[in-house]
Design a protein that fits this description.
Structural class: alpha/beta
Radius of gyration: 15 Å
Number of helices: 4
CATH topology: Rossmann fold
CATH architecture: 3-Layer(aba) Sandwich
Helix content: 10-25%
Number of domains: 1
CATH class: Alpha Beta
Order of helices and strands: EHHEEHEHE
Strand content: 15-25%
Length: 152
């Protein structure tokens, strides 16, 4: 996989153990190869250091306020999946709603980093990852770069 990292970031959303909880999320998944595919994507980004001290990878995780939720910080389900664990130098942002922009500094990080190309991957592509794709163009300053919503 060849990825040009100039002005590029990978946004990894909600790749947490709690999403494997069948009572909350069901027994079947649309992509049983998600972990393998995400591992390959992250390795491709991490292996490209062409002039970059570290690739721009931003991990966003859901921090539920409901103590019964598998995604509550007191529960092991709030932890990242092993394949998605952030490495030193990779940004980590917590959120409390579906959107990765509401109540976070994600937009500021993207703008400060001069990001013009954003790849989006997540365990719940149809919900949280989709919200990023939908909401980012609605920011105050229009985003003119391409975005890719990756279905892993």
């Amino acid at each position: 996989m060849d990825i040009d990292l100039s002005h590029t970031a990978l946004l990894v959303i909600d790749c947490q153990k709690g999403f494997e909880h069948p009572t909350y999320w069901g027994h079947t998944r649309s992509n049983p190869s998600f972990e393998k595919n995400l591992t390959a994507l992250l390795e491709a980004f991490r292996s490209k250091h062409s002039g970059h001290p570290t690739p721009t990878i931003i991990h966003v995780y859901h921090k539920s306020s409901n103590p019964q939720s598998p995604l509550h910080p007191s529960n092991p389900g709030a932890d990242f999946l092993p394949c998605a664990a952030p490495r030193p130098g990779e940004a980590v942002i917590s959120k409390t709603v579906n959107s990765s922009f509401i109540g976070t500094d994600l937009e500021e990080r993207i703008r400060a980093g001069g990001i013009r190309r954003l790849y989006i991957a997540g365990l719940t592509t149809g919900i949280c990852a989709f919200h990023v794709r939908l909401e980012y163009p609605l920011s105050q300053t229009p985003y003119s770069g391409p975005m890719a919503l990756l279905r892993l």
